[in-house]
Write a structure and sequence with these properties.
Elements lengths: L2 H20 L8 H39 L3 H19 L14 H5 L8 H12 L7 H6 L7 H9 L3 H6 L1 H28 L15 H28 L19 H17 L6 H8 L1 H20 L4 H6 L1 H24 L16
Helix pairs in contact: 2-3, 2-9, 2-10, 3-7, 7-9, 10-11, 10-15, 11-13, 12-13, 13-15
């Protein structure tokens, strides 16, 4: 090889990094872009949803107190509706697993699930049998097991076998009211604390929770990517079990109140909103600039999942016992796997390193 060829090749090699850098669509989002997105997500997505949870859980507290004051079919129905509204609000912010919701394990206290060993059921039955009125005050619930002070325990009382006791026995009803009160307290405290915590996403100077905007964005991106896997693994694959011949309907989330699929619909709608509905800047717009092909695929994935969920009209227990329904749930599981894979892959062009999965071990 002559010197001219050698120098030409050396010059080409030296230019390659510049060519790669200058290629459209390969420059990762800037710190300023992440700052704008972080602020938008905090102010438009997270804070309003915690406020909705605080409002709904406050109404739940009132409704259960009214039920205990005058037990009737009407007050029971009102308490059940308030439960649904609170669970709707929780499912709409359940994907955020950092910040104030993790203080004193509020996230697990709000909803300890999946409860694979029926811990909550056993402990709740013990409370109902003991009828110790000291277990009804706030101090008790602050130190109580996470299995008896959140939404799953309240669901058992308002929709499960214990409902008859709630209607007939003052202690059982007061227990439901105490749990609702504790849930309302957690909702209010979390919403209030996010007013301060949310400032971290407005002006990051390296002296607070985050070193820079990219680090803050990483927590937000985990809240987008990881929950898809959680929904698939816990909310679908567990009740699907190994085959259509052995489904496990009672492994589904919120099966007593027949809202298992409703939960998943809210989860997916919420994640889709987090992905695209934050005004001028969104995860979708940033990805469109970096990897339009991947962005288009994620759009298609979200649309497919939402359509499949819309087609599932019966309760999940009915779907699981029907061969066609089981097959539809399995197809939904496969589509969620694809959505998760594409969201995870989208983090590379956005230059986000998700690292440790905060949900490992759930």
């Amino acid at each position: 090889m002559d010197k001219t060829s050698l120098f030409s090749r050396a010059g080409l090699i030296a230019l390659l990094p510049l060519l790669v850098i200058s290629k459209p669509g390969l420059a990762a989002p800037s710190e300023q872009q992440w700052a704008e997105l972080n602020r938008a997500i905090a102010e438009q997505h997270i804070v309003p949803r915690y406020q909705a949870l605080a409002s709904a859980s406050a109404s739940l507290k009132t409704a259960t107190s009214q039920l205990c004051a005058a037990p009737s079919e009407a007050t029971l129905a009102a308490a059940q509706q308030a439960f649904h509204s609170t669970m709707d609000a929780w499912q709409g912010i359940q994907h955020v697993q950092f910040g104030p919701i993790t203080t004193l394990m509020r996230n697990f206290s709000m909803q300890f699930w999946p409860d694979k060993k029926n811990l909550g059921g056993k402990q709740l039955n013990s409370l109902l049998n003991a009828k110790d009125h000291q277990t009804l005050d706030d101090e008790y619930f602050r130190a109580a097991s996470i299995g008896v002070k959140g939404l799953p325990a309240l669901e058992r009382l308002l929709f499960g076998k214990a409902q008859a006791k709630v209607m007939a026995e003052p202690f059982a009803c007061q227990l439901s009211a105490s749990i609702a009160g504790y849930v309302a307290g957690m909702g209010q405290e979390t919403a209030q604390e996010w007013q301060q915590y949310g400032q971290e996403f407005v002006a990051i100077d390296g002296n607070g929770y985050y070193e820079d905007n990219t680090e803050a964005a990483t927590d937000l991106m985990k809240s987008l990517v990881e929950p898809v896997e959680v929904v698939r693994d816990n909310k679908l694959l567990r009740p699907l079990n190994k085959s259509a011949s052995s489904p496990k309907p009672r492994r589904a989330e919120s099966w007593r109140s027949e809202r298992s699929l409703r939960n998943i619909r809210i989860n997916i709608e919420t994640l889709d909103a987090l992905y695209r509905d934050t005004g001028k800047v969104s995860v979708a717009s940033l990805l469109q600039a970096e990897d339009p092909t991947r962005a288009k695929q994620i759009d298609s994935d979200f649309a497919a999942v939402k359509q499949q969920l819309a087609d599932l009209r019966d309760p999940i227990a009915t779907q699981l016992r029907n061969p066609q329904g089981y097959a539809a749930l399995k197809q939904l599981s496969d589509q969620l796997k694809q959505l998760h894979g594409n969201l995870e892959a989208a983090m590379q062009p956005l230059n986000i390193q998700l690292g440790f999965n905060s949900r490992d071990g759930d």
